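RECORD TYPE: inverse folding
INPUT: structure tokens
STRUCTURE:
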């Protein structure tokens, strides 16, 4: 499919949750046509009839504005233990929750869906036996989800390397190991949602190293402006770009050097609930699009 510029929909949560509103903003104000839907906008825990109604509204709004839903992902409010909960019953209902999430995504036309790989508690992490058991359970759950994704016609599942060891995939090598473990018995491949601002390990904080090593395995790449040692999820405004770590030219050079040829570059930008930020959301997102568009003209 080549390279496409789009946006992760986390920016709209509790600010622009109505499909008819955010679809117009994405297409008209931001001039984007590709989105990554998030579970905070259509949560599988909600009643089935409401999910059905909201999904239909989302389908209609995307069709009206020419928007493609490429992916579906967990978001801020759903960044919890999931498949790595120490409670077996919780793991079971989260597995069913993910299957419902994938069904929602497939109905919207998503080619993939996913989350972070998993989060263990401190008690689990500090106990090597418990940590190994949690990993084995999590790998089996992801493999079961690949079978669900295959039945729904999805191309792959994706997970996002995160920030601390409890959340897994904090080094390039650990990330590849997780892929290998799941893909040893997967119905569709497990791939990556690679974030240019996530380079958490003290010896691997160069984001471009991650891109060169892993971009060919990442059908989705999150874009955010940040500084070293922090994941700010800031917009690409001139002020932020002046001292920011992420350069569009360096990112695209690393992607090309990696050999990658297919990816959705999705803005994952967050505005805090501050007086001086609320009114800037759309303008900051538009500035971010303007910054990246010369290198990603679709």
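DESIGNED SEQUENCE:
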């Amino acid at each position: 499919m080549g390279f496409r510029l789009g946006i992760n929909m986390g920016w709209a949560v509790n600010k622009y949750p109505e499909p008819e509103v955010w679809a117009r903003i994405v297409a008209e104000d931001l001039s984007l046509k590709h989105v990554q839907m998030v579970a905070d906008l259509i949560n599988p825990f909600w009643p089935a009839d409401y999910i059905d109604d909201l999904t239909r509204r989302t389908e209609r709004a995307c069709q009206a504005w020419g928007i493609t839903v490429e992916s579906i992902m967990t978001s801020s409010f759903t960044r919890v233990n999931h498949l790595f909960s120490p409670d077996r019953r919780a793991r079971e209902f989260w597995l069913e929750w993910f299957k419902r999430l994938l069904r929602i995504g497939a109905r919207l036309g998503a080619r993939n869906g996913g989350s972070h790989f998993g989060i263990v508690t401190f008690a689990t992490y500090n106990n090597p036996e418990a940590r190994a058991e949690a990993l084995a359970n999590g790998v089996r759950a992801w493999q079961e989800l690949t079978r669900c994704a295959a039945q729904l016609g999805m191309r792959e599942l994706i997970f996002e390397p995160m920030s601390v060891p409890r959340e897994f995939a904090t080094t390039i090598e650990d990330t590849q190991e997780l892929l290998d473990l799941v893909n040893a018995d997967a119905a569709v491949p497990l791939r990556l949602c690679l974030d240019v601002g996530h380079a958490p390990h003290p010896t691997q904080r160069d984001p471009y190293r991650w891109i060169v090593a892993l971009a060919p395995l990442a059908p989705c790449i999150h874009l955010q402006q940040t500084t070293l040692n922090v994941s700010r999820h800031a917009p690409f405004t001139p002020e932020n770009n002046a001292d920011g770590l992420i350069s569009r030219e360096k990112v695209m050079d690393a992607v090309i050097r990696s050999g990658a040829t297919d990816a959705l570059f999705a803005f994952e930008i967050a505005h805090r609930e501050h007086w001086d930020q609320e009114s800037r959301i759309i303008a900051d997102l538009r500035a971010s699009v303007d910054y990246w568009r010369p290198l990603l003209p679709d």
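NOTES: The chain has a mean pLDDT of 95.
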